[in-house]
Design a protein that fits this description.
143 residues; alpha/beta; 40% helix; CbiA/CobB_synth; P-loop_NTPase; Cobyrinic acid a,c-diamide synthase
């Protein structure tokens, strides 16, 4: 192995992020996160992948839809009822056997109940070390 190949291999995880788990967020609420999440679950399932869905927060309606789309139970990841360790453990435990895990956020990327943003979608992505797919509602935007 050449020195260059060793460097590339070492930094590969930084160059191409692992997309087997990712979080879907948006700039603000009501931007289409659920629609995109459901569509991705269905599209990945149609390609023969086993999909595990998660929903941030205490929501109970969206997880019902995500369960249908993924054909596996959707689990909540909630900063208010779970510790950081429990959130991480839930992702690991319930993702076992899945080819891909989709975490649907709530509200906007940096929205949360505290001023520090410790319970935002961004905080969840940071905690779980997952990339973010940002959904943008471009209605009314111009060049």
């Amino acid at each position: 192995m050449t020195f260059l190949q060793a460097v590339v291999d070492h930094y590969q995880k930084f160059l191409l992020p692992d997309m087997s788990h990712f979080l879907i967020s948006a700039a603000h609420k009501s931007s289409g996160k659920t629609t995109i999440s459901l569509g991705l679950c269905a599209a990945f399932r149609a390609r023969g992948l086993l999909v595990q869905a998660f929903k941030k927060g205490p929501d109970y309606i969206d997880p019902l839809w995500l369960t249908q789309a993924a054909q596996r139970p959707c689990y909540n990841l909630d900063f208010y009822t779970m510790s950081s360790a429990e959130i991480r453990d839930s992702l690991v435990q319930y993702s076992q056997g899945a080819d891909i895990s989709i975490i649907e956020g709530n509200k906007g990327l940096y929205d949360g109940m505290d001023v520090e943003g410790s319970n935002s979608n961004a905080a969840l992505a940071r905690l779980l070390a997952v990339p973010v797919v940002l959904v943008l509602d471009t209605q009314g935007m111009t060049r």
